[in-house]
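Hi there. Long-time user, first ticket. I'm pasting a complex I've been working with (about 221 residues overall). I'd like to know whether the download I got is complete or cut off, because the file seemed smaller than I expected. Thanks.
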Amino acid sequence: MEKKKLCLALYTGSVDKLTAAGVILGGAAAEDMDVEIFILLQAAFAFKKENAMVNDRVAEITDKKDDFLASLKRLGTPHWTEAFRKAKELTSVKIHICGFAGKVWHGEKLDDFIDLADDICGIAQYIQTAEVADLNLFI
Amino acid sequence: MTTEELKKLKADKVVDARGTACPGPLLAVKQAIADVPDGGIMEILSSDEGTKKDVPRWAEKRGYQYLGDFEESGYFTIYLKK
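Hi, the file is complete. Here it is re-exported in full:
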């Protein structure tokens, strides 16, 4: 049976949305989907080596950030990087850093980003992948 | 199956995913199913209510049989037949 493909345009650099993306990736992994993730603008900030584990910005309900982060701990929710890593272990997940986004955040080389990233890409690769994906998401 | 019938089943594999939230239990099931022989029984323990709906859906799509579940002592016990 041919695997379904999920194409995720990941724009956010906020841990609330990155955590949501991690949950969705877990679902995609459970369904054996092939996943391609394109790291756009603010997400490239979150994927920088020096930011990934210390960035705790949230995008929404910001006045309840401390409650939100405490609840993630209470529920045993893995850090988004671990959720992404787990998905990579269980299914094919390719993570592409948008070259422009990388440069915005002073990331010129793949080595500037956490080891979840597979390569640096251009927009044509995203468009072509999105064209044939079974499921397209923008977060 | 009734709760009493489910409790009499002998599991070939037990997945204890209590204390993890969605999608943790489902991923634990996916990883462990390879250890269950064809026709074997998997018992899943989960404190996540969503698992009760996710596991039957996931199993049906793969041709596994959802046998039922029950709640006891603050967690759910779910049974699948591979």
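A couple of notes from our side: Chain B has one domain: 3-81. Residues 18 and 46 of chain B are 4 Å apart (CA to CA).
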